[in-house]
Amino acid sequence: MSGQRFVKKILLTYLAFAIRERRAVITLNRREFILIHNHTPNHTGIIVCAQDPDTDGQTQRIHEAIMQVGSLEGVLLRVNLPWRK
Questions:
Q1: What is the pTM assigned to this prediction?
Q2: Distance CA 69, CA 35 (A)
């Protein structure tokens, strides 16, 4: 098994666990989980984020994004970095 297939298998295992436990996945691995969402849209929510050194601000943006959509069932939620001045 190639390394890429092995990684994808591990990520699908995480998603399967989250579905069983009725939990959303929050990840910095945007690229892979966007692809997984496109191929597996029946999930309990995937939140993809960019790496942000302002963890308090990122936590607040994630919370606000979740409040806007309500249910995360089948949702891919993208939480981006704020515009920097």
A1: 0.86
A2: 21
